[in-house]
Amino acid sequence: MVFINVLTKYSFSETGCLSFRYYCSVNMKKLLNIVIILFCIGSSQLPAQVSIPFYKHFTGLLDTNMFIVLDLQSDGESLSGQYNYRFSVEGSANEFYFGKTVPVEGEIEGESLTFRDYNSEDSEFSCTFSGSSVISGTWQGGKPVKEIPFTLLENYTDGSFPLKTLHLDRSHNLLEGDEFASISPQAHIKIFLLYPESNANRQLKDTLDMVIAGFMRDTSEIIKSPELFLENIVFDFFQSYVEITEGIEDFTNVASFNWNKEYKIEVLNNQFNILSLKFTKYAYTGGAHGISIIRHEVFDTKKNRRINIKDFIKQEKIESLSVLLEKKLRKLNGILADESLRDAGFLVDSIGVNDNFFINTYGVGFFYNTYEIAPYASGTTALFIPFSEINDLLKPGHPFTWLK
Description:
Helices cover 13% and strands 41% of the residues. By secondary structure, the chain is mostly beta strands. It folds into three domains: 5-36 and 166-306, Fervidobacterium nodosum Rt17-B1 like (Heat Shock Protein 90); 54-154, Lipocalin (Beta Barrel), CATH 2.40.128.620; 309-393, Alpha-Beta Complex (Actin, Chain A, domain 4), CATH 3.90.640. Strand 10 and strand 11 form a beta hairpin. The radius of gyration is 23 Å and the shape is globular.
């Protein structure tokens, strides 16, 4: 049995990062002495020349007529996010033609950012920060290649919801001592949490708390301190690692004793009072492969509640949506209409509408985790349906106010 006494000391550095060191005593040779490498609390402020984790919501113009909304987040090294664009309908100030939402990935170095369309080298944004809330530069792409200037401003006046970032990346070696540093099995945990600002609507914050706690800790709790909430996750993870490996003497196959856990929250839409979030959880604790779980949640930030399928799809049209999803699945995998899904390698005879969906201004996507409808070798399944294909399925008074 392992007995652990923990004394936590903490201090804020000049850069705004919170550093911790745990001092633990145990009744075994493996001393649980966890040194937290770095715990940076990102906010809407981005100091010049420092690449700290952040999430920002930008709006602005590409050239003179394309309005762009960009949700961008960084873990301090790489960038990810997505943008969507729209054009005004001629003769109307309130109606728009909406284009697709495009995922992006890239890099950040100091004040310089470069990001491109996901899996594409044909579209690239090169820009710099001006202060902490403006990025400007050029977009390059198209055939023939064009260079178009743009300026985007961080703002939350379009029915978007401010979120701060809490980023954590820590490791714990199972074998203590410098002589074992290069060969010791290791537990590693990485978290990128997006969390409401302190002045957020209390009702919506409590709803987000329940979703975040349920996904990350399998609990139902109001998060009084997000920093302490993450500390508890880290402590439980490292404590389990030490307890389960206690008494093992042979670490010849080091890789089989390496544990890894990751949590990440990403924004898929944050405008028109619709906040769509993607929650990713990955864990490897030995065996052939790790397990990844992805969950999507959509919130109405005006009514301060979660959105479910019945909030926007007519009850009598749910089956029609299921039929449309199966057609998408068959087309995606080249399966004929009279061919059984099981014969094609799936685990089910038909797929239904699930509650693991996301929203953007172009449409709605449904996500199926590994083993939900297909075996591990097939991976996850994502099916996307533009709003234009389900107009007759939408309920009157649905929450998607941009659809005219």
